[in-house]
Design goal:
- There is one protein chain.
- The protein has ten helices and 26 strands.
- The chain is an alpha+beta fold and 405 residues long.
- β10 and β11 form a beta hairpin.
- The longest helix is centred in the first third of the chain and has 16 residues.
- Bound molecules: ligand LGMQ2O6W, calcium ion and magnesium ion.
- The site of calcium ion (CA) has 6 residues, from loops.
- InterPro entries: Fumarylacetoacetase, Fumarylacetoacetase-like_C, Fumarylacetoacetase_C_sf, Fumarylacetoacetase_N, Fumarylacetoacetase_N_sf.
- GO terms for molecular function: fumarylacetoacetase activity.
- It holds the Pfam family FAA_hydrolase.
- Its cofactor is Mg(2+); Ca(2+).
Length: 405
Amino acid sequence: MSETWLEVAPDAEFGPATLPYGVFSTDPEGAERRTGVAIGAYVLDLGAAARALDAPYAEQVQGPTLDAFMAAGREVWDRVRADLQRWLGDPAFEAAVRPHLVDRGSVRLHLPFTVADYVDFYASEHHASNVGRIFRPEQEPLTPNWKHLPIGYHGRAGTVVVSGTDVVRPSGQRKPPTEPAPLFGASVRLDIEAEVGFVVGTPSPMGEAVQVDDFAEHVFGVFLLNDWSSRDLQAWEYVPLGPFLGKSFATSVSPWIVPVAALEAARVEPPAQDPEPLPYLKGAQAWGLDLRLEVYLNGHRVASPPFETMYWTAAQQLAHMTVNGACLRTGDVFASGTVSGPERDQRGCLLELTWSGQEPLVLPDGTERTFLEDGDEVTITATAPGPDGARVHFGEVTGTVLPAR
Ligand SMILES: O=C(O)/C=C/C(=O)CC(=O)CC(=O)O
Ligand SMILES: [Ca+2]
Ligand SMILES: [Mg+2]
C-alpha cells in the first residue's frame, strides 16, 4: 500500500509501507497498555479499531502485549496487515478509523511482548574476524567451526529492556594484562553492539527441527537491538563457555516490531557461502535483508553497518537453533550478532571502531571516545527498501549509560 487518506509525507517515518506493531499507553502510570500500529505522526489503537470494525481477531490484538497476536500465527498476521492496508488506504474507512488514532508524540511505548528465550548469534564475518584479531591475536581470526554453523549463545531474557531505558554501568571482575590477579569494580570498557532482532510468533514442538524455508511461518517480526557489552568483564570470563555477565546486564530493543511481510522488497541473496553449508542450513528462499543501520553516539553518527553483508541469515539461524529438537516458544528472541561491514565506518561496536581502544574516535564536538562514558547516549536506527521506492522504517533503539552503583 502506498496510499493513505492520512496526511503522511511520502518520506515520513512509518509511512504506510511499514505498519509496525507496538504496545503503548497514554495514562500517567503506563498501566493501560494497548497494542498499536505506527502510521506517520499517529498510533492506531489496533484493538479499538478492530472492535469498531467487527474484525474476527479483535480479541487477539487488544493487548496488553502482542503475545496473543504473535501466537495466532501467519494467517492472522496476514489478515491484520491486509485489513490495516484497507482501513488506512480506502477513504471509506476514515470515519470508523480516525477516532482510534492517537498522537504518536504523546504515547509511552513499552516492551511489546513477553520475552521467552533470548539467543544471540555471531553472524557477521567482518565482526567475527575483527573480534578474533583483537581477542585472540595468536590464532586464526575465525574459529574452524565459524563457516559451518551459525555460532550463538543463550543470553538473559529477563534483562531485555525497551528503548529509552537507562543502562547502569555493570560491575564485575576484570583482569587487566598488567595485573597479577583480577580486580573488582565498574567496567571500564563498556560497549554497544548494533544488531537486528527477530521474534518468534508461532511455536514449534520439542523434537522437531524447523526448516530454513519455514522462517516466515514462525517469525513474527524484526526490530533493532543493542547488545550492551562490557569488554573487560567479557575478556576475563568468556573462556571456555562464552559470553556471560559481560553481556547479561542489559539488552535494549526498539519498541516497534516490523512485520516480516513488510520486508519483501528488502530481501536479497546473502553473501556466497563457502564451504557449502550442510543440507539443514539450506533453503530455496533468500533471507538476506538489505537493512541500513546507523549508530549514533550523543547525536553523532559513528557507523553505518550494512545488514546485507551478514554471512548467516536469520532463516539459517532459526533452523540451527531447532536442529537438535529444541522447541520454539512465542516470544523467543534471537539476534543477528553485531552487524559490521568491511569498511571502518561500517563497524557495529566500539571495540572494532576504536580497535580495542587504541584508535579513539574523535566526535564532531571535539570529544574523544574509546569506550562509553557515563551519560553517553547511544541510538541505533535502520531503514530498508519497501515497495514502489518507499522506505520501511525501524524507528530507533536508544539508551543512556548511568554510573555504576
Ligand atoms: O569472539 C568472541 O569471543 C566473542 C564475541 C562476542 O562479542 C559475542 C557476541 O555478542 C556476538 C556478536 O554480537 O556478534
Ligand atoms: Ca552480541
Ligand atoms: Mg546484551
